[in-house]
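hiii, so i know i said id send this last week but things got crazy w the move. better late than never?? heres the sequnce for the chain we talked about at the cafe, plus the structure i predicted for it. fair warning i was half asleep when i ran it
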Amino acid sequence: MAYKYLVIVESPTKAKTIDKYLGRNYRVVASKGHLRDLPKSRMGIDIENDYEPDYINIRGKGPLIKELRKDAKKAEKVFLASDPDREGEAIAFHLAHILGLNPEDPIRVTYNEVTKEAVKEAIANPRPINMDLVDAQQARRVLDRLVGYNLSPMLWKKVKKGLSAGRVQSVALHMIINRENEIRAFKPEEYWTVEGSFIKDRKTFKANASKFKGKKLDLKNEADVKAFMAEIKTQDFTVENVTEKERKRNPQKPFTTSSMQQEAAKKLNFRTRKTMMVAQQLYEGIKLGSGAPVGLITYMRTDSTRISDSAKAGAKAYITNTYGKEYLGYQPASKKAQGSQDAHEAIRPSSADRTPDAVKDYLSRDQFRLYSLIWSRFMASQMAPAIYDTVSADLVQNQATFRANGSKIKFEGYQKVYTEANNKDNILPELVNGETVKSKDLEPSQHFTQPPARYTEASLIKKLEEDGVGRPSTYSPTIETLIKRYYVKLEAKRFEPTELGEIVDKMIAEFFPEIVDTSFTADLEKELDEIETDQKEWVEVIDAFFKPFHKELEKAEVEMEKIEIKDEPAGFKCPVDGGEMVIKMGRFGKFYACANFPDCRHTEAIVKEIGVTCPKCHEGQVVERKSKKNRIFYGCSRYPDCDFTDWNKPVARACPKCDHYLVEKKIRGGKQIVCPNGDYEEDVQKGEAVEA
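okay and structure toks below
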């Protein structure tokens, strides 16, 4: 079928969606990402000639390029409709080069959401390719290549093959290791609290010890507690300093890429990679019944919280019609973030009227959960604050003071659609200055200060963003690279550095301190942003970085010592040839191998015994293993002779009712020992692991 116009997008899914929006005069095809890039086999940058990149057509893309050229020749006009960001602008630039198009001609179209209206408006208003955006992407690509292709071979030479280093990757690894060092250096300190139960008009309420002898309470040890408790002679306490206030809680802004990743990790238990994959699906288009596919959310790579006027109007109409005018919030005009594109908005639904329930039947479970999160966060951002009535009061006897705090939600506001943790009412009885209440129970508790927690994916992304390291599109691949290289491992969803990761970090920090320096990386990130706004030339930024970096490279080449990661003795013999078994470091962690490799290729997985005899064969030990998806399960050490497995951790006790083995089951708020048959369960143990 003949066509007049060719539209080139990145994704085949998006191509199918947009093809339904445009008439028969249009043909929509996909580039399937980048078509040109730096070569993989060499640096591909002419350092002596202003860091000129040597782009080549990507291997395997030849037939697609041939087809695109053929399609372009048949068209009167070609529109380049790749994603509305730096990466998308660079793809458009390379497409223009391949197809022989003039980048100064109006051939570039961008849209923030894949809807019929947005796409048609973009097609009607094409623009030239923005070379500042192209230069910004090119600068990042060249800079990352200069760092990666110089540091990685050095690590291969000095440590072992297969290692890598990168501008954002190395900073993230350094953060994880610094946190681990803080944990190792941490010394717990003792402290005590006293919680009291009090009665007023048959209603029991809680209050916590807050002051002693007029000063803020600081109970460091049991002696301090005894001195505090000695002031309490009777059950009678006098009510003082009753304060009633109205408190407002404002809604959070709509999602950026990083805040979406963080919230999806916390509320949906999504890995960063999964969040971005599902968001991509929602953006590119979902078929809702018999009609054309429609993009349900705006572009999901953004660091802006700006909302368009039309989106605000749509939200206002929905909130008014559904909840009433009193639920509308006052939203000041959003300021354009420095370095952000005007086309970029926050991540929001493409239509406020398209509620999660309205599209639920057309979405997968993961799509529905993420869309619900995005929709509710956006709607909440346009709603009125939640209003609480709060009350506080001091309960005093001699020189001991307890503080009681209560709150009651007065007006839900945005919490009508977006729930938050700890928003439950805590209602106190009516307390009046000068009256007496009675203590029912005063309970001192010993505590110890805790070390800082290891980073989760969400907290690491938050830290990177706060420090200005990387950009929304870099967080997910950075994390995956750290795991893939076995620099870190995820234990209980928290990052723990490996021995290999610590070795690599130490070497880079010693010889290339600026590469792992957060402030330096953040300043460089700002300079790269300034290229986008035509405040700096990309060649000058690269040159200012590379010249001192090159000197460090030359020094490291001479002074950096070769590190040999020695095999550890395993303490038992190889069952095949009788040689010594050793512990080796592999791509996916440590494993047992015969020391006579390559003559003997026998290997064994390292498993962790849990001190429980196999309940099935009664011969082997129950060991901790990991599935292909890195999920922990429990099996018999005699596998394959014994095929016992269980997702829950067995304990060394039998059910008192049916004699089946008991398991330790993770539940919300703690763990619980239960019988898998459902015949028996023990009280929930909060916090740490349940002891068998």
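btw The chain has five domains: 5-129, 141-186+454-559, 190-250+386-448, 257-381, 566-606. thought thatd interest u
miss u guys!!
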